[in-house]
Amino acid sequence: MTGPLGLYVPGRSPLHRCPPGPKLLGLAVALVLALRYPLLAAGPVVALYALARIPVRLALAQVRPLWGVLLVTGVFQTITIGWERAAEITSSLMLSVALASLVTLTTRVSAMLDTIAGVARPLRRIGIEPDRVALLLALTIRCVPLLTDILGSVREAQLARGAGRNPLALVVPVIIRTLRTADALGEALTARGVDDE
């Protein structure tokens, strides 16, 4: 079980069997708690990964691309607002990514789309297409691990070229690659008729 970053990993754990609706609702609640009490939320997040039977290597791969960014952010926040608040901010970011990744690791995209579209069905009365809402939310959740993957690969390339820890050398390539990925995604969606009226 060594699936790529943020992609569904087949399994029979309780989290895999849990319907997407309760899982997405739980994600929303867990994100609020992780942002408010990050140091207390770390244990339950680790327990959820264990419950889902996600291998340690794969679990660490979900947040590994963030480590460089977290280090820079943590140092900056420590200097400006103190180490306690810096620890809370960096922990919140890491836990949020880990939680979003856990949902994508244990939920098929098709099931997630069907659930969100069902919840959004009443919006059709005011002219909003439920399928588009479902696609938007599913892409948002999926793009969290995708962006961390971009950050990690750019960081590795930066270190390989000996660019040091220059923030500009990290930020500019990340923005360019993110825009290229978004453009490719837009073209793929258009080719599949998402923009058809």
What's this entry about, in short?
The chain has 197 residues and is mainly alpha-helical. The protein is 76% helix and 0% strand.
Mean pLDDT: 79
End-to-end distance = 40 Å
Please indicate the count of domains. 1
| Number of β-strand runs | 0
Q: Which descriptor suits the 3D outline?
A: globular
Helix content: over 70%
Number of helical segments? 9
Tell me the fraction of residues in β-strands, as a range. Answer: under 5%
Any low-confidence stretches, pLDDT <50, length ≥5?
A: none
Largest sheet composition: none
Structural class: mainly alpha
The helix/strand series, from N terminus to C terminus, equals: HHHHHHHHH
Radius of gyration: 18 Å
Explain this structure to me?
With 197 residues, the protein is mostly helical. It has one domain (14-191). The protein contains 9 helices and no strands. The protein has helices at residues 14-17, 20-36, 38-51, 56-63, 67-81, 83-106, 109-119, 130-160, 167-191. The protein is globular, with a radius of gyration of 18 Å. The N and C termini lie far apart (40 Å). The mean pLDDT is 79.
List keywords for this structure.
76% helix; 197 residues; single chain; mainly alpha
Lay out the secondary structure:
Layout: H1 14-17, H2 20-36, H3 38-51, H4 56-63, H5 67-81, H6 83-106, H7 109-119, H8 130-160, H9 167-191
Helix pairs in contact: 2-3, 2-6, 3-6, 5-6, 6-8, 7-8, 8-9
